[in-house]
């Protein structure tokens, strides 16, 4: 049987370019799909970040013509590999992508993100035609690729090349929708008939996330719980109506983890390796982490709580701020790694200045330090307001670093609450988005920590949890099949 051909379009892909969890997914899911027999290829823009990484790239296509707002631009396409026989294509157009950031500076989005991502989406189709690589399925992610299902929808009608290509659209975060002026339609060469509430119109603008939702055969989010939550007003960010309308085509598949990168038994970035049956290495990692943050080695006698995060409203830092006084009365220390919104930079800078002996702070993006925090901490905090999937809590499990999470989205799907009676469970969770509830979970975690026997069991439970990609990739292959059935009229 011919392998299923999948073109995987993502605006970020590990190890080439990353701002968040999407990149981790796009860097590891294709590898798992390939192992299941798919012929999968990945496409992303050639950002400055990619160039700085010095990856071996070779030119695959020169002067590919891409229509943009009635003009034709030429782009070159470069190629690299994600794994043996798994090509990654990079769309080069320097005046659009050779910039410091992927989507915008800390002060706001780039003013021409419409141009940038229309070009990217159209180039993705163009390169498939030119290679040629006629995909059975286009797998797009988030608003940056939301135009692809719409482009396919209108092309299928008149171009036999695309007649049988279905699309699956994965939503990694409802809060980022890609809103643009209606003139993005002629820029993308899409007809005005798409500009209706049943199409991609959204209160007088064009909404690219909505475009992905409306025009793809199947939609999914990155956890089951989040796929239900986004059908409500609280989590749907205005798109709950259309999502509810499409609920029979809406699924949830929890993200897997690339254990080649995130396993304390083989992680080259941490001070000492360790595993479920030999935990001494974790002590060395804790000592190393305290040193890294200039905290006293004596703190090793007490729990170290870790945070690694984009500093954004989503992540629940107002709750963390609200419990901070109570928290810091305990014998413990807190290490925080993150970048993002200015107000959280100030918040953590002030807190760290007030409690220099208990708080270690690094306002940066630093992958090595992220690994050291996973390895050296005892607990990991994720009190998110919402969390489509969340990866750090899953990494934490593997590193025996107990997650304390709010029961939302993927956090609820991946962490089970520890029960002292049955001794089952992998972490601590609270339901309502309230500081007192968060505090109760923290207090319970600290109490269990003080009981070495219980803590050992809990840690063993956590480290045994398995979120490798294989299971999730199988579910994706099922959705690919379903999307193709839907397109064929099933
Ligand atoms: P989101 O995609 O909402 O940012 P996830 O938990 O799904 O959240 O994924 C975040 C990813 O980005 C993880 O791999 C995490 O380790 C990484 N990350 C986030 N902030 C930083 C940082 N400041 N330094 C290093 N890695 C970070």
Brief descriptors of the model:
single chain; 490 residues; alpha/beta; Rossmann fold; six-stranded parallel beta sheet; 20 strands; globular; binds adenosine-5'-diphosphate
Bound molecules: adenosine-5'-diphosphate
The strand count comes to 20
Looking across the biggest beta sheet, what order are the strands in?
A: 3-4-5-2-1-8-9-13-14
Range of strand content? 15-25%
Query: Segments where pLDDT lies below 50 for 5+ residues?
Result: none
Overall pLDDT level: 97
Oligomer: single chain
Helix content: 25-40%
Number of domains: 2
Q: Number of helical runs? A: 19
Rg over CA atoms: 23 Å
Q: What is the CATH topology of the largest domain? A: Rossmann fold
Largest sheet report? 9 strands, mixed
Assigned CATH architecture of the largest domain? 3-Layer(aba) Sandwich
Shape: globular
* Coarse structural class: alpha/beta
CATH domain class of the largest domain: Alpha Beta
Report the end-to-end length measured between terminal Cα atoms. Answer: 21 Å
């Amino acid at each position: 049987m011919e392998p299923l051909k999948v073109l995987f379009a993502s605006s970020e892909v590990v190890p080439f370019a990353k701002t968040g969890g999407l990149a981790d997914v796009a860097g590891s899911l294709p590898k798992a799909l390939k192992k299941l027999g798919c012929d999968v290829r990945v496409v992303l823009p050639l950002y400055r970040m990619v160039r700085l990484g010095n990856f071996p790239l070779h030119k695959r296509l020169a002067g590919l013509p891409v229509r943009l707002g009635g003009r034709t631009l030429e782009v070159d396409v470069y190629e690299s590999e994600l794994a043996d026989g798994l090509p990654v294509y990079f769309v080069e157009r320097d005046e659009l992508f050779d910039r410091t950031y992927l989507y915008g500076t800390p002060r706001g989005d780039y003013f021409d993100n419409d141009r940038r991502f229309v070009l990217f989406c159209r180039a993705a189709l163009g390169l498939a035609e030119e290679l040629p690589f006629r995909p059975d399925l286009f797998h797009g992610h988030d608003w940056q690729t939301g135009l692809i299902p719409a482009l396919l929808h209108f092309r299928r009608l008149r171009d036999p090349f695309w007649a049988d290509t279905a699309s699956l659209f994965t939503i990694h975060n409802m809060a980022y929708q890609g809103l643009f002026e209606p003139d993005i339609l002629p820029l993308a060469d899409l007809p005005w008939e798409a500009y209706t509430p049943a199409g991609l119109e959204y209160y007088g603008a064009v909404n690219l996330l909505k475009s992905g939702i409306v025009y793809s055969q199947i939609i999914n989010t990155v956890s089951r719980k989040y796929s239900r939550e986004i059908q409500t007003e609280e989590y749907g960010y205005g798109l709950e109506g259309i999502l509810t309308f499409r609920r029979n085509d809406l699924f949830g598949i929890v993200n897997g983890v690339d254990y080649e990168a995130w396993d304390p038994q083989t992680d080259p970035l941490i001070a000492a390796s360790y595993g479920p049956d030999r935990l001494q290495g974790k002590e060395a990692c804790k000592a190393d982490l305290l040193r890294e943050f200039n905290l006293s080695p004596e703190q090793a006698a007490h729990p170290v709580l870790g945070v690694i995060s984009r500093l954004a409203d989503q992540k629940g830092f107002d709750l963390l701020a609200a419990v901070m006084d109570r928290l810091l009365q305990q014998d413990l220390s807190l290490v925080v790694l993150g970048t993002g919104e200015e107000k959280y930079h100030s918040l953590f800078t002030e807190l760290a200045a007030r409690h220099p002996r208990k708080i270690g702070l690094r306002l940066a993006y630093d992958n090595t330090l992220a690994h050291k925090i996973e390895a050296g901490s005892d607990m990991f905090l994720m009190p998110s307001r919402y969390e489509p999937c969340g990866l750090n809590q899953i990494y934490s499990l593997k590193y025996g670093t107990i997650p304390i999470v709010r029961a939302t989205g993927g956090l609820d799907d991946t962490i089970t609450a520890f029960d002292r009676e049955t001794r089952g469970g992998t972490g601590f969770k609270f339901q309502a988005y309230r500081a007192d509830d968060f505090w109760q979970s923290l207090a319970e975690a600290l109490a269990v920590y003080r009981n070495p026997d219980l803590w050992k069991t809990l840690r063993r439970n956590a480290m045994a949890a398995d979120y490798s990609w294989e299971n999730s990739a199988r579910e994706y292959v099922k959705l690919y099949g379903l999307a193709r059935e839907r397109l064929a009229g099933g």
